[in-house]
Amino acid sequence: MKRLYVPLILFLFLILEGVAIKFLPSRFVLGEQLMVPHWVLVLLIYVAVFYDRGNKSQAVIYAIIFGLLVDIVYTGILGVYMFSYAFVIYIIQNLKKLLHGNFFVMLLFSILGLVLSDMFITFIYDLVDIIVLNWDNYWLERLLPTVLLNLVFFVALYPILAKRLMEWGSENNWD
Amino acid sequence: MPFFRNKRLFIFLIGFIVLVALIGFSLKDRENLSMVEQFINDTVGWAQNIVHTPVTYITGIFKNIDDLRNTYNENQILREQLGEYKGLVYDVQELKEENEELRDALELIESDSIRNFHPIQATVISRSPEQWLDEVTINKGKQDGVSENMVVITAEGMVGKIQTAQHYTSKVQLLTGFDQFNRISATISRGDQNDIFGMIEGFDDETNTLMFRIIEESDKDVEEGEMVVSSGMGGVFPAGMVIGAVTEVVPDQYGLTRTALVEPAADLYEINHVMVLDRQAAEPEEEEEEEE
Questions:
Q1: pTM listed for this prediction
Q2: In degrees, to the nearest 5, what angle opens at C-alpha A109 toward C-alphas A107 and A112?
Q3: Crossing angle between the packed helical segments A58-70 and A80-96, to the nearest 10 degrees
Q4: Domain count along chain A
Q5: What pLDDT was estimated at residue A112?
Q6: Domain coordinates in residue numbering, chain B
Q7: Which structural domain, as residue segments, surrounds residue A151?
Q8: pLDDT tens-digit profile of B53-70?
Q9: Any A CB within 8 A of B189 CB
Q10: What fold, for B109-292?
């Protein structure tokens, strides 16, 4: 049963991403700044650091599955989120071996993951002409607000999720 | 361990190839989404509906309290306007009858008119977090008669069109995400055959307005504040849907035609209840909205 917690939580936040943005006050959405919730990615980083043990890499598999789901449900252009999420989680899983997973390391991982994945997504959308992008404006208008929004989400989740994921992870890896 | 190093590189390259293939597949002009995508979209839509309903209920309560404060003032204004409408009602009644008589004389049946449509009420259940794409999901799908390219409106005016329809949910492309592939044939209505025709050709992010390219000039210049409505000539949208008001007229880059910047009448950011319009007149063979 505890095996199912992680995918269920991921699925819940996948759904909430779309519903929550509708209830953001319109001046956030209307303004120059674009905020994109990458909540699934933040959760995946938690899973990668706290849930996976040793050389197990369930997080990468979850990243592929849920990245693809984000693509299907919210953008219709398959593969972009899937690839960038999986790639970022793979990098973080390798970095995890060098640094011990405490709050500040997690913060660093989250910033790194968010910046990398958002840039990658933007780069691909720009490449295939889905959006017309001015890279000069991108840093301040989209990247910074996006990273900040998701960091708030990350900090809010830390006390709730970190210990629990470790428990679930250890139980999962024992059997 | 050179073998493992190679294996990693191998997986990475395969992943990259899959990525390119998937993007290529989804950018292709697809008539319908694949079964898997439809199924996932419907499942997620169903779950979103469950989450969305209580949240709207709670936010609705707060909004209602807010509304109550303004009620008295609004009531006063509405009462004044009601007096004016009474006169209009008689006019409309008479015009309608006359119109019907003339139609009978011409032996046109009701469904021939491009003004007629069948509305489908729907609620917006989610908005794409990827904000560049300007998509929202509504809770009505093919089962309710929604199909691709139908126009979506709110009480204020047009907000977009149906991009893809699944069985129980559908995705709406908002006007802000329109480009040269999603044109709307539109018109500025004037008396005496002086109508101005043109195309809505996309959305300008810098000024937050739609670009209305004027094809057929009238003797008089376009003025600020004039209403742009759909003309129904595109073959899919019904005629007479309010799109927005002109804010500025600028010449295009070659100086041959002029483009009016049109501010959308509907609020494209706070959309809750929408109507999908099913045009009753038969579609012509070629859909001009999708051409070029």
A1: 0.79
A2: 110
A3: 160
A4: 1
A5: 93
A6: 109-292
A7: 2-14+36-168
A8: 888 888 888 888 888 888
A9: no
A10: Thrombin, subunit H (2.40.10)
